[in-house]
Amino acid sequence: MKTIYIYPKLAIGFGGGAAGLDREGFLFKKKSTKLRKSIENALKENNLNSFNVEVTHGFESPEELLENDGALVLISPYLKSLLSHIDFSKKEYYLLSEAEYNSENMDNILKYIKTQLS
After folding, report:
1. Structure pTM?
2. What are phi and psi of 101, to 5 degrees?
3. 3.50.50.60, 3.40.50.2300, 3.40.50.12780, 3.40.1700.10: which CATH number matches 2-117?
4. Residue 86 near residue 62, CB atoms below 8 Å
5. CA gap 48, 67 in Å, rounded
6. Which of 8, 54, 109, 117 could staple 22 via S-S, CB 3.0–4.6 A?
């Protein structure tokens, strides 16, 4: 089973600090958790059960995730400048828009999964 990783933040420094926006307002709800559930539901509805969806903590690079068992890394729009070394034209990396990251629009993500990975 291949894994679709959601990459919401990037661990920086030795102290384990993280860059990236993953919280909704003042609540402890995470945008990445909401996105994972939305993607899992969309995959089930479209009979794409051969994928596992996981949220990363940013300690591994997107490249390392693909080397393990990753099929796709969905990258937060707030990390684009921090991950400037990533070639976003490769099919294994998908830079999310803010609407997609906020789980407001799943259409493009699902279309991408269907065309690139199925």
Report:
1. 0.83
2. -65, -30
3. 3.40.50.2300
4. yes
5. 22
6. 8
Q: How many residues does the chain have?
A: 118
Domain residue limits, the chain: 2-117
Nearest to 10 by CA among 69, 64, 49: 64
User: For residues 19 and 2, what is the distance between their CA atoms, to the nearest angstrom?
Assistant: 27
Taking the C-alpha atoms of residue 15 and residue 68, their distance in angstroms, rounded to an integer, is 25
Pair 20, 95: CB distance under 8 Å: no
11 pLDDT above the threshold of 80:
no
Q: What are the pLDDT digits (tens) for 62-88?
A: 888 888 877 899 988 888 777 778 887
CA distance 92 to 66: 8
Cα 81 to chain centroid, rounded: 16
